[in-house]
Design a protein that fits this description.
Blueprint: H1 2-9, H2 35-40, H3 49-53, H4 94-100, H5 110-113, H6 141-149, H7 167-178, H8 185-198, H9 200-205, H10 210-220, H11 225-250, H12 255-268, H13 278-281, E1 286-287, E2 298-303, E3 315-316, E4 321-326, E5 329-334, E6 340-344, E7 351-356, E8 362-367, E9 374-378, E10 384-388, E11 396-401, E12 408-412, E13 418-423, E14 428-434, E15 440-445, E16 452-457, E17 460-469, E18 472-479, E19 493-495, E20 501-504, E21 510-514, E22 517-523, E23 535-541, E24 544-549, E25 553-558, H14 559-563, E26 573-575, E27 580-583, E28 590-598, E29 603-610, E30 614-618, E31 630-634, E32 640-645, E33 651-656, E34 660-665, E35 670-676, E36 681-686, E37 697-702, E38 707-714, E39 728-736, E40 743-748, E41 754-759, E42 763-769, E43 773-780, E44 785-790, E45 799-804, E46 808-813, E47 833-837, H15 842-875, H16 880-890, E48 908-915, E49 918-923, E50 930-935, H17 939-944, E51 955-958, E52 967-972, E53 978-983, E54 987-995, E55 998-1009, E56 1018-1023, E57 1029-1034, E58 1039-1044, H18 1048-1056, H19 1084-1127, H20 1136-1139, H21 1143-1183, E59 1186-1188, ...
Parallel strand pairs: 22-26
Antiparallel strand pairs: 1-55, 2-58, 3-4, 4-5, 5-6, 7-8, 8-9, 9-10, 11-12, 12-13, 13-14, 15-16, 16-17, 17-18, 19-20, 20-21, 21-22, 23-24, 24-25, 25-27, 28-29, 29-30, 30-31, 32-33, 33-34, 34-35, 36-37, 37-38, 38-39, 40-41, 41-42, 42-43, 44-45, 45-46, 46-47, 48-49, 49-50, 50-51, 52-53, 53-54, ...
Length: about 2000
């Protein structure tokens, strides 16, 4: 049937025996496809080797070549495989295959398609010839492994020779052919054998592949007829492909061929309803042939793990289903039912990455392994829809669909890092390129810009474009340059709509990329980082940017601020704050989040991947109704380090690096409990039943060396609320710390009596097992312990097998029954121990295997050669002697072989006992691939062995087909017939054993990859107690549960069964155990050493006490001797010196005492300083911060008292904040003072700039015109220069006057100009005219000055706090003053009392009045005295305390007091003296004595009696005065205190209102803080737009200024051109017969040399222009030559040569001017276009600014509404409430409005002010109209004057020059030489007249002297006149006062006086005229060369101003 298909397709034109071209003949294909190739070439399934390994196409690609047909796949074109009419294809012969390998358009079978490769593109199949090596390259290791891996591929045939020049087309045909490989088992098997026999040269190149071909051929025979039908369909589609490619290669321009190709392409598209049979694609276990093990030996039942540390390992398929990679499976998890579905990988190498199509209809699974595939599944059917082959070598790190879903991007991992773009629906590669030379984390399509991609990874980010070039579609990548920014790994990024990319960094900040460069780095304000740690993901969702950080925060940023962020300074950092943020939880490390939308409820939910082991459900609405984060699932985070199954129930316990221990019920498929600890778990066992019959004990070891013994029990009812969602509890039973480093292994001996633990601290600890675990002791090991194992019970002696990491194995006897001295240390010695050091023998084993292989090959070779030679000898072609010679020649010496021993010993991974004294080892690294049986030998036996055999294993068993993957775990099955083996690559191996529990001979095996192949090392394989289920724990964090063998019938019972849990504890039995949380806690040995040290210290203390007791006894004896000595007579007593045995001893003791005191002082110095510092800290913390304690000042006679405000000092932070607020407030005010028109200064600057430019240009022009020289030298030349300088000055004056006019015209306001003063007045009126609107009104607009923000709220709080503090501080000062006054009053009263006592001492007792007691300060009035102390007060306090103790012992009463801390001298005096008033009693006693004396002395004279009475009266008065003074002081103080108390009451009200106000302000502050982020973003946006507008306006103004300058330059050039033409006309003269000829010469365009242009393009343009100009000029020349008879380039005869040369020079100048003018016009046009474009941009910016301002106003209104909801407390009095209803105050005041009283008053005054203002405005308007009319009239008058002056000027010009001339041009005429010579003669004449000038100078000096004298005389006369006038005025005043009514004749001035006054006035006027005339004459004479003119006519007499005032 296959032959029929071939016949239908037709045969090719090329002969069937075409040979494969040599490598040198192969043409390297280009990197990318052309557009035509993309249209015409069929879609690919697998990328060819040529694309992958082409050095020319991708210089940075180091990917090795790929093979076609590596995967066992079905052709996507064979969608008709299910149709019944499809017939299975028959096998093809080798001849047919060879014939079909042609470049023409016939149909080719799949194997033939896969053989067509250019250059390096030849594919390779198992059993086929390897590809031809390129540039010396051999076949890669990947190619070999690919051959071993894929059994279902076809061998390639010979490759057809492609036509010359058709490289691209042939390449596409070959690629398409390669990707059309189908799985046709029978056909493949036969074709392999046929192809091998057909091509002997291929067979010679691959002799080692025969066994692979046979094995793969057997496996391919198991394929169904369905695949044959697929192959048949593929052949049909291939025929069209070949026809199309042939047409393309032969006739690219043929339209009919293109149409046919397009039609064929439509036929060859893979149908959308095509699916692969996924069951046939799943990777199957590797089973040894005839092993008897079934395929489904292990069936995955459930997964308890989640690889949460894997990047982007959480994907959403629908609203309730997520998927993620778990080892070699894709796990689909239902979030509601928690049901799991599994998809196994097809490669068996693991899952690299997953992505979901935007439509959620498909999801792609990118795998790992050798040349892995990308499988695209349909959801929810989970059918395999497409297979993408050949995208990478080993693994995929990331895949992503484009937004349309029609393209797929993938990036590979090590070693190729290949970026591939797929047309996945057609299984075709679109583009490929190497992404980077290091790991690439992510690749994504741009959501907005089609054809753009981004990749990021280790230290890089790259931006890609799919660009259409002239060679076709190419992938162009631009590497991001970090510049000054530190290079960082980039995990998360997002493409912005405008093409920029926002990425994260390792340190937590964001980078904004634009054009491959960092535009700005974004951080938080205050130099804070955006996240503490790397940013894992960045999302752009609904206009908001969200960053997901490893610190557990999700922050939302304003998109506009980020998109428009720019650098403000050299730091390159842009600071902003997030709008919202969410902390998911404590110790959460987010990796990614996903968005899910509930279509029914319209709820948006986010799901987060937590690297700390969990899946979270998040609500990111950021509102008050947002739900808290919910942790849906919890898993191990990272590697599982320990696992064990309960020996009794269906429970399994695990521990891992995430510090948790978890218990699972693997029958119920759920986690029962989780407990977290301080450190990571490292080892775990479930105690055997011999230790715990109920199997509820778990023993776990941790990384800090702690062992925790825990019990599992059901959670009681009282415990349930504490541990939610946990079915059981893990209760600590005992905790101890036997090691100082991590616990690596735990083991219990077979009797259950001893627990052994091994640690990384090189120790093994033994403990006795009982109710508690008691330590026995520990031993030390040479290196860290890897694993320990007790000997089985069958052994005679109980020993512990210890495996150390460096290849050392120890066997230690059990300490059971032995006694050890552990009184001081737990370190035990004397335990028998044997050791074994592993020695590597792998290199020797491999060498022996290699020798054996060579020996067999040599035997086979000799047999073949012997047979061949025998045949040749029979034929007579060779003799027997020649045979011997040949054999001798072939003998070559073997090189010397030396075994390889690794420098560092291979680590021991696991091991166990085989029999007594012998054990099996599994080694890692170099020695992996074998199991070694070793034996302990005694030292004697070891010495008897040869040195090379010492420490070598007894035997080694190779682990077949393991690729030297190390074994990490081994465990016998229950019957001992099988060994469960866990591998380092995550695979499980079930090894059959020939003998029970014997590893001597390994038979068949069953092996399947389950965990991740790269980091999923098997930690433990645990079998359930009934051996029906298997659990595997891996370092990838996965915990899988499998059914062993068939368990379908058991599943129903298992689903309902529950694990047998121990009964819950009773509350009475529960014992609380303290856990060890401190990592520095004592270990058991350290605790033992500490106890021993304490014991020794106790013994020493006892000895000290015994010595002290002996000394005390001796002292008592000595004391008794001294007493006896004192009882003796004096002459018999011994002196004290005699008791001293030796004086030196006493001195020595004194010295020792002093030294000890010094030592003690030094020892206590640190403690004393410590206590002092502590006291100082307490004082600073509690005392210094208090500004004023609570001081209560009390009155003397009344109970009134006033307390101070206990106020704290304002902190430095407060003052800093306040200063910062004031500074910002000042800056804001300065900013607000800027006028509305921000461009006014710019306009002024422009005017000045233009003036400067004008002036400069004028100077430059004048300088150019002033370059006139003369032959005259000396002073003549100087004068000429001076004359020119005068001309220049005049010109500058005119220019300045012109500039003034221009400035005046520029300042002319527009018609719609508004005075800024009027604008500000209107604004002031609007703001303050009293238009009060309620803030709750809907139309209320928040004014700018009333807009509240956080800064204002903070400032108000600061001001209020400062005011509160100021009020309290001022009041406290007043209180302290009155307290000081009270102290002074008490002191004054004390003085008065002393004076009063003195007075009363002189009075009789009956005349005494009661002395008032001296007041005392209450302790509350002096609280600071409590903390004051001195040594005396301390001693007094000590005595007081001793007295209290004695009184307490004696039973006497006592009273307390302040002791020495009161500081009151009166109290101390009272305590010492007893009575408080001792002096009065003394005085009274003295007075009694006086009376007695008086009674005795009765003979007093009357004078004395009178004097005594007078003295008595005086003393009584003085006594009364003193008492009144005391009462006055007391009353005045009490009155002042009452006034202060009243002020305190008022201040309390104010303070309470202030506190309420502070509460309100704080509420506002909190509310504004919530809005701050949004407000800052909006304000920043507005300010940014405003700044952008200002910049745009400034730019426009600058351009306008430049345009004005250009216009002026153009005008100047035009003026120069006119002047030049006028100069030319002047040079011709009148009636010049050559005028027409010279005019043509002047106007002729000549060829001029262009200036050199550096730019090549400019030079080209110039050359073009030159050529055009040349042609024009040539035409002009021809015309000129035709018109005239003269050659314009030569001066004609008769013409003046000077005039002709001058004409040529003027022509050159004219051309220069014309060129400059043309250039200026061109620049002017460019500036005009720039202005127009900028004006358009300004309109756009203005509209954006208005939109931003509108948004800000809406936000302010929203914020104001929120502020209005806050309650504000206002205290009112009843008279302030004017809201009455029927004269009664209503109960409901909710409708009232609180308004300030002065506001009402101000409104009333405002009414009158407005009326007055209205009147004034009307008046001002009338005056303005009148003034306007007057200005119009004045303008007309001035216009008429100007016209008259212009007419007069013109008349004067005509009179002088004969015509109207330009004065400026007249001045520019150069100086005439003749005139200057005449001037020189004039100068000589002036020199002759110098003498006359000297004479006149003398005359002038004399005249000046005369004038000075006359002036002085006149001045004196004027002074006299003033005096007389003043006298006259005074006299007239007197006369007027005396004679008001009389003397009419004297009322007027006298005629004589009037005449005299008039005469004097005339005299003064004449003198002034003479002075003016003399001055003019002096001026004329002082000028050089001036001529004296006749004196001017005297003016008419008139009154000078000063005299006019005098006359008046």
């Amino acid at each position: 049937m296959e032959d029929e298909k071939t016949a239908e397709g037709g045969q090719g034109d090329s002969p069937p025996d075409k040979k494969e071209p040599e490598p040198s003949d192969k043409v390297e294909p280009p990197l990318q496809e052309t557009e035509q190739d993309k249209k015409d070439v069929p879609k690919e399934e697998e990328k060819t080797e040529e694309v992958k390994s082409s050095g020319e196409k991708k210089p940075d690609s180091d990917a090795p070549k790929e093979k076609a047909g590596e995967e066992k796949v079905e052709d996507p074109k064979s969608s008709e495989e299910k149709k019944p009419e499809s017939e299975p294809p028959t096998e093809k012969s080798g001849d047919e295959k060879t014939e079909e390998a042609k470049p023409s358009g016939e149909q080719k079978p799949e194997s033939e398609s896969s053989k067509e490769k250019t250059g390096e593109g030849k594919t390779e199949e198992p059993g086929s010839e390897p590809p031809v090596e390129k540039a010396g390259e051999g076949k890669t290791e990947q190619a070999k492994s690919s051959e071993e891996k894929e059994p279902g591929s076809e061998p390639p045939a010979e490759k057809a020779e492609e036509p010359q020049g058709g490289t691209n087309e042939t390449e596409k045909k070959e690629t398409e052919g390669e990707n059309k490989v189908e799985q046709e088992p029978a056909k493949e098997a036969d074709s392999k054998s046929e192809d091998t026999t057909k091509k002997p040269e291929e067979g010679q190149e691959k002799p080692a592949e025969g066994s692979k071909v046979e094995e793969e051929g057997k496996q391919t025979e198991a394929k169904t007829d369905q695949e044959n039908s697929e192959g048949e369909k593929a052949e049909e589609t291939t025929e069209g492909d070949k026809n199309q490619n042939a047409t393309e290669g032969g006739e690219e321009g043929d339209e009919e061929g293109n149409k046919a190709a397009k039609a064929e392409e439509e036929k060859k598209k893979i149908p959308d309803d095509f699916f692969y049979n996924f069951e046939d694609m799943i990777s199957q276990p590797h089973i040894t042939q005839d092993s008897g093990l079934p395929q489904d030996y292990l069936n995955l039942v459930h997964s308890f793990g989640y690889d949460c540390t894997k990047r982007h390992n959480l994907h959403l398929l629908d609203e309730r289903t997520v998927c993620f990679a778990a080892g070699n499976y894709v796990l689909l998890l239902d979030l509601q039912t928690k049901e799991q579905k599994y998809l196994r990988s097809t490669s068996g190498g693991g899952i690299g990455a997953i992505t979901v199509d935007p439509s959620k209809k498909y999801f792609a699974v990118a795998e790992k392994g050798v040349s892995p595939n990308i499988n695209v599944f349909e959801y929810p059917s989970l059918k395999l829809h497409r297979i993408l082959r050949g995208g990478t070598e080993r693994s995929y790190s990331y895949v992503d669909f484009n937004p349309k879903g029609d393209l797929l991007a993938s990036v590979g991992g090590d070693p190729d890092y290949m970026l591939t773009i797929w047309d996945w629906k057609e299984e075709q590669t679109v583009l490929r390129s190497k992404a980077f030379s290091q790991e690439v984390f992510r690749v994504t399509f741009s959501t907005e810009l089609e054809g753009q991609l981004t990749t990021a990874g280790t230290g890089h980010i790259r931006f890609w474009k799919m660009a259409d070039t002239f060679t076709g579609l190419k992938l162009q990548g631009e590497l991001g340059k970090f510049g000054k920014t530190e290079i960082s790994d980039i995990e998360g990024y997002v493409e912005l709509p405008d093409g920029k990319v926002l990425s994260g960094t390792e340190n937590g900040n964001m980078l904004l990329w634009e054009g491959g460069l960092i535009k700005v780095e974004i951080g938080r304000k205050g130099k804070k980082l955006c996240h503490q740690g790397s940013i894992q993901q960045i999302l752009l969702d609904e206009g908001e940017l969200m960053t997901i950080g490893s610190d557990g925060y999700i922050r939302v940023w304003d998109f506009e601020s980020v998109d428009t962020a720019d650098v403000a300074d050299e730091s390159g950092l842009f600071e902003m704050e997030p709008m919202n943020e969410l902390r998911v939880g404590h110790d959460v490390h987010l990796k990614s989040i996903l968005k899910s939308t509930d279509a029914e409820n319209e709820i948006t939910v986010w799901y987060a991947q937590d690297a700390s082991g969990g899946i979270w459900k998040l609500d990111l609405t950021f509102s008050h109704t947002s739900q808290a984060p919910d942790k849906l699932f919890t898993y191990h985070a990272g590697a599982i380090t320990g696992c064990d199954v309960s020996p009794l129930t269906q429970l399994v316990a695990t521990t891992g690096v995430d510090h948790t221990i978890r218990v699972f019920d693997f029958l119920q498929k759920k986690q029962l409990c989780e407990k977290r600890f301080a450190d990571a778990g490292t080892a775990l066992i479930w105690a055997p039943q011999i230790v715990d019959a109920k199997a509820k004990t778990i023993i776990a070891g941790f990384s800090d060396g702690v062992i925790r013994v825990m019990t599992v029990a059901q959670a009681g009812e009282d415990q349930a609320p504490k541990k939610l969602k946990q079915d059981i509890d893990l209760d600590l039973k005992q905790v101890f710390k036997p090691h100082n480093k991590a616990v690596t292994s735990i083991a219990v001996n077979d009797k259950g009596e001893i627990l052994a633990t091994g640690g990384a601290d090189n120790t093994i600890f033994f403990l006795n097992i009982g109710e508690t675990y008691e330590p026995i002791g520990f031993i030390e090991t040479p290196s860290a312990v890897k694993q320990i194992q007790w000997s089985p019970s069958s052994f005679k002696k109980s020993t512990l097998l210890v495996f150390c990491e460096d290849g050392l194995v120890l066997e230690i006897d059990s300490p059971d029954g032995a006694t050890f001295d552990t009184s001081k240390t737990f370190h035990i010695t004397g335990l028998p121990m044997r050791s074994f050091k592993f020695k590597s023998i792998k290199s020797r084993l491999r060498h022996e295997e290699e020798l054996e292989r060579k020996r067999k090959e040599e035997l086979e070779r000799k047999k073949r050669e012997e047979e061949e030679r025998r045949k040749r000898i029979e034929r007579g072609l060779e003799t027997e002697s020649e045979q011997g010679d040949v054999e001798e020649e072939k003998k070559t010496p073997e090189p010397e072989w030396k075994p390889y021993i690794p420098s560092e010993p291979s680590p021991i991974l696991t091991g166990f006992y085989s029999e007594e004294g012998q054990f099996w080892l599994s080694m890692g690294e170099f020695d992996a691939g074998y199991l070694y049986e070793c034996k302990f030998v005694s030292e004697e036996e070891r010495n008897t062995l040869p040195e090379e055999l010492r420490d070598e294993p007894l035997q080694s068993v190779p682990v077949t087909e393991s690729n030297d993957v190390p074994i990490t775990f081994m465990h016998y099955s229950g019957d001992g017939r099988k060994m469960l083996i866990g591998m380092e690559d995550g695979s499980i191996r079930i090894q059959n054993l020939e003998k029970e529990f014997k590893l001597d001979e390994l038979s068949s095996h069953w092996q399947l990859n389950l965990h991740d192949n790269n980091y999923g090392r098997i930690v433990k394989l645990a079998v359930s107690p009934d051996e029906r289920m298997l659990l595997s724990a891996g370092s990838d964090g996965n915990l899988f549960l499998y059914d062993i063998m068939e368990q379908e019938k058991v599943d129903q019972k298992v689903a309902e069964a529950k694990a047998k849990l121990p009964s819950a504890k009773k509350s009475g039995e529960q014992v609380t155990v303290d856990d060890i949380d401190d990592p520095n806690a004592y270990s058991i040995e350290d605790a033992k050493q500490k106890a021993e040290h304490d014991k020794m210290m106790k013994i020493a203390d006892e000895k000290k006490k015994d010595v002290r007791r002996q000394i005390a006894k001796l002292r008592r004896q000595f004391k008794s001797i001294l007493e006896q000595n004192e009882g003796l007579p004096v002459h018999l007593q011994l002196r004290k010196e005699e008791f001293e045995l030796d004086k030196d001893i006493k001195l020595e003791l004194e010295k020792q005492k002093t030294d000890r005191i010094d030592i003690v002082r030094k020892e206590l110095a640190w403690e004393a300083e410590k206590q002092r510092i502590a006291l100082e800290k307490l004082r600073k913390r509690y005392k210094d911060v208090v500004e004023c304690e609570r001081i209560v000042v009390k009155a003397f006679k009344t109970p009134h008292e006033v307390a101070s405000f206990r106020a704290a000092k304002l902190s430095d932070d407060f003052y800093h904040m306040k200063a910062d607020f004031e500074r910002r407030k000042t800056m804001t005010m300065m900013k607000d003072d800027i006028t509305r028109d921000p461009t006014r200064d710019l306009l002024g600057g422009k005017t000045l700039h233009s003036d400067d430019q004008t002036g400069t240009g004028g100077k430059h022009g004048d300088q150019g015109g002033a370059k006139v020289t003369t032959t005259l030298k000396g002073s003549m030349g100087e004068r000429i220069n001076k004359a020119l300088h005068k001309v220049e000055e005049k010109k500058q004056k005119r220019a300045a006057r012109r500039a003034q006019w221009e400035e005046l015209y520029n300042t002319k306001p527009d018609d719609d100009y508004e005075d800024p003063a009027d604008v500000s007045a209107i604004k002031e009126a609007k703001d303050n005219m009293g238009d009060y609107k309620l803030k709750t009104a809907k139309d209320y607009v928040v004014p700018d000055h009333l807009r509240m923000n956080v800064e204002k709220a903070r400032g108000r709080l600061l001001i209020l706090k400062d005011l509160i503090h100021e009020h309290k501080y001022n009041f406290n000062l007043r209180l302290l003053k009155i307290r000081d006054k009270k102290l002074s009053v008490i002191e004054e009263i004390r003085e008065l009392v002393a004076e009063l006592e003195n007075v009363q001492s002189q009075l009789t007792r009956n005349k005494h009045k009661t002395i008032p007691p001296i007041p005392r300060m209450h302790p509350d009035e002096m609280p600071e005295k409590k903390l004051e102390y001195t040594r005396d007060t301390l001693l007094a306090f000590k005595k007081e305390m001793e007295m209290k103790q004695k009184e307490a012992k004696g039973g006497g009463g006592g009273f307390g007091g302040f002791g020495g801390f009161g500081g009151n001298a009166g109290d101390t005096a009272k305590d010492k003296g007893g009575s408080p008033t001792p002096k009065p009693s003394t005085i009274m006693s003295e007075s009694k004595g006086g009376e007695d004396e008086e009674m005795v002395e009765f003979d007093t004279s009357p004078l004395e009696v009178e004097m005594k009475e007078a003295l008595e009266i005086k003393l009584i008065y003085e006594q009364d005065r003193l008492l009144e003074r005391i009462q006055e002081l007391l009353l005045n103080f009490d009155a002042e205190l009452r006034l202060l108390r009243h002020d305190k009451f008022k201040l309390d009200i104010v303070m309470k209102n202030a506190d309420l106000r502070q509460v309100t302000l704080f509420e506002e502050f909190v509310l504004l803080k919530e809005y701050e982020k949004r407000e800052d973003v909006m304000e920043a946006k507005v300010s940014g737009k405003q700044q952008e507008k200002l910049d745009m306006q400034a730019k426009i103004i600058e351009l306008q200024g430049k345009q004005d300058m250009k216009k002026k330059e153009i005008e100047k050039l035009q003026e120069k051109e006119k002047q030049l033409y006028a100069q030319f006309q002047a040079s011709l003269g009148d009636n010049n017969k050559f005028a027409d000829y010279l005019t043509k010469v002047f106007k002729k365009k000549i060829k001029r040399a262009k200036k050199k242009v550096t730019d090549g393009e400019g030079s080209d343009e110039d050359s073009d222009e030159d050529s055009d100009d040349e042609s024009d000029w040539d035409e002009d020349d021809e015309e000129s030559e035709e018109e005239g008879g003269y050659d314009l380039d030569i001066c004609p005869p008769g013409c003046d040569q000077n005039i002709y040369d001058n004409t040529c020079q003027l022509r050159e100048k004219k051309l220069d001017i014309e060129e400059a003018l043309q250039e200026e016009k061109k620049n002017n046009d460019g500036l005009k276009k720039d202005i127009e474009s900028n004006n358009k941009k300004l309109k756009v910016v203005d509209s954006a600014l208005k939109a931003a301002q509108n948004d800000l106003e809406a936000f302010q209104l929203e914020k104001q509404q929120k502020l209005n909801e806050l309650d504000v407390v206002v205290t009112l009095k009843l008279h302030q409430i004017q809201y009455m209803i029927n004269g009664i105050l209503p109960q409901d005041l909710s409708q009232t409005l609180v308004f300030e009283s002065h506001g009402v008053t101000r409104l009333q005054h405002r009414i009158k002010e407005l009326e007055h203002e209205k009147h004034m405005q009307k008046k001002h308007m009338k005056e303005s109209r009148r003034k306007h009319v007057q200005l119009i009239k004045d303008r007309k008058v001035f216009d008429s004057k100007i016209s008259e002056m212009e007419e007069r000027t013109n008349e004067m010009m005509i009179a002088k020059f004969g015509r109207i001339v330009d004065l400026e041009k007249l001045e520019t005429i150069t100086v005439n030489r003749q005139i200057e010579e005449l001037k020189e003669k004039l100068r000589l004449t002036e020199i002759q007249c110098a003498e006359e000038l000297e004479e006149w100078d003398e005359k002038i000096a004399e005249k000046k002297a005369k004038i000075t004298a006359l002036i002085r005389d006149n001045t004196d006369r004027l002074d006299q006149l003033c005096i007389l006038l003043n006298e006259k005025k005074s006299f007239e005043g007197e006369l007027d006062s005396r004679q008001k009514s009389s003397g009419q004749e004297y009322t007027g001035a006298r005629k004589a006086d009037l005449r005299e006054r008039q005469r004097l006035i005339q005299l003064v006027q004449l003198q002034a005229q003479e002075i003016d005339a003399l001055k003019e004459e002096i001026m004329l004479l002082s000028r050089k060369g001036g001529h004296i003119l006749p004196p001017a006519q005297p003016p008419l007499p008139q009154s000078p101003p000063n005299m006019r005032t005098i006359s008046n």
